[in-house]
Design brief:
Elements lengths: L1 H17 L10 E3 L21 E2 L2 E12 L2 E13 L4 E2 L6 H25 L5 H25 L6 H18 L9 E17 L1 H6 L4 E11 L2 E13 L15 E13 L2 E2 L3 E16 L7 E22 L9 E19 L2 E19 L6
Helix pairs in contact: 2-3, 2-4
Amino acid sequence: MKLFAAILLLFWSLLAQAQMQAFKLKPHQKQWEQGALTWNDFQGILPSNAIGSELNYQLVYSPGKVRFADSTFFIYQVYGFVDVNRSWVNDAVKTEGELKFNQAKFNLLEIHRRELQAELKSPIRSRDAHWAAGRTLMNLKNAMDQFQTAAENGRNATLVNAFLDSTGQVLQVTGKTTQPEFRTAGFGCGTHLGFGYRGLGGTLGRHFTNPLGWEYNLALAYQRSLLNLDLSLGFNQIDRQYLKRPQWEVGMQTSMLQAGVSYGFIAADKNKVRFTPFVGVAALGIQPRNQYLNGINNTSAFYAGLNIDFKFRKRIWLLPSAFNPKEIADYGLRARISVMPAKYDHTLKGTSICLTLAPYIFSRIVKSKKLY
């Protein structure tokens, strides 16, 4: 059964990874950012009876990731490049004018690449990405045909120079890819699992040592409100005998379990830190680790506290995927304090103060942008 579960988990992991296969440029594929064209970029075999030159180019999009400051964006990345091994030139036309003619076409390719990238960097549907890419390729083909016809395949030097200048100016204005823009839907979730230290006060603290153990939280969010499920399991021992449990000897190992539900409100959410106070109701029980002895009945009471999230990195997934919704998630370290009164009877009561330190993740759903 465990083997089947492991195989199933691996299967889904491989499927999710397959959707994230990024395009990798090969050494013979030259992008516009790598510099102006030279005749060394025309290494293709010259067809028989061929004249002039041929610039072989491609425009493709693929899942990828880009980084801006402390954020990693998973978006569609667009690549426009010339294939050096497929581009060719007849030695008889290796002139400066012919090279400028091909550079103008290279500029035109880069302009359309940036236009498509501007559309695909938003959180869009896969079919919209397909239509946007198809439309851009058609526009590129039409623009290339119109330029080649107007420039008389490079023979009209005046038009080639003018077109080279105008496309160069456009490329200076458009610049490089900017940070993707997106809107959240308001819904989200978060979780943490870490270490907790619980300080016990009153007679509760005199009978039991302070427990150290695990702290778990699951939160469902909408806008600034959160619904929390909190679970805590601490391990301690008896420090002084409890008269109502004479069979509980000093030094006996015990466990302290707290389960609660609370409402939280994000009071402040800054770039590097988030403050979330919460209040709820919880049950706190004590159980000896000797299975033959009965524990102390759970006590229920209100509890309140504060989460302080120190954000380290952000992950923004804007790609359409069956295995990963579009979301923005931040990762970091959570410091948490909660206070709860505990009263089992008039002889065993006090205050429980829990300090937690845990890695956390908190994410929100991102809205898709419809292009068509």
